[in-house]
Amino acid sequence: MWKLSPDQTEELKVPFDTTFSLFHQYRLADKYSPLNASPGSYGLPFYQLNFFDRVTDPDKYLGWYYYPFMYQPGNYLFMNTQVPFTELVWTYGGLRDQAEQTFRIRHSQNVNRKLNFALVYDIVYNLGQYNYQQSSDKSFAFNGSYRGDNYKAYFAYGLNNIKTYENGGISDLSQLETLETRNIAVNLGGLSKALSYLKNSNFMLVQRYTLGKKTTSVADSSGSAREPFWLSGSFSHILMIDGNRRSYEDNNPDTVFYGPVYISDRHTFDSLSARTIKNTTHI
User: Fold this and answer.
1) For residue 225, what pLDDT band results from cuts at 50, 70 and 90?
2) 236 has which bridge partners?
């Protein structure tokens, strides 16, 4: 199992772990970076406390607070299996009214020794500790690889839908000392039904052709190994398409939380979209 380097020019091996070691560490966010800050529930936006682990690519500004939940060119996993491999992971924890659930199914299968296809479906569902803090993150990815002697190709398609409720924060911090979390008043309640959406779809195609043939080293008269002289090189083509749409809606914006409302005090819907297309060749 491996993933591609940030510039998609080489393979980086990933340990293939099918044991139950550290199974309780199921959170993808913690595997990406061990220390994170968030509003308090898994599945909500967060950022890495370790500055060097943060996503700083300006093209990902609409989704970098959800990046570990999403399937993107930087975290696609490719496999080479002698037999079909299927992984099923389901976790459930917490009280019924604050339940946190995750579900993931992954399947990978080789058509022959060079061609592989894989798919994965991932769900994070969390009701949260406070009112209107629910998160529902659903991600799907389909990828494959062809690894010949001279020609290699990798393709992947990802579809990520992330929905989170917005409660605007706690309105009275003194209630934290006397009330249960479900009874604490928040700034945006049931009338607002404020929601944030992030929809992302991306496509990646990487092709690389290497000149020359594989040769084995030969020993000279001194007994040391040496490589015979031959001309070599590689040609690469990388195509990446990434589309993001971020939106926010509120059914009752006429509150002091927003300040003045200049358009409509009955309903608001704001959205922002961005699409990037990168077509790169390497010699």
Assistant:
1) low
2) 208, 282
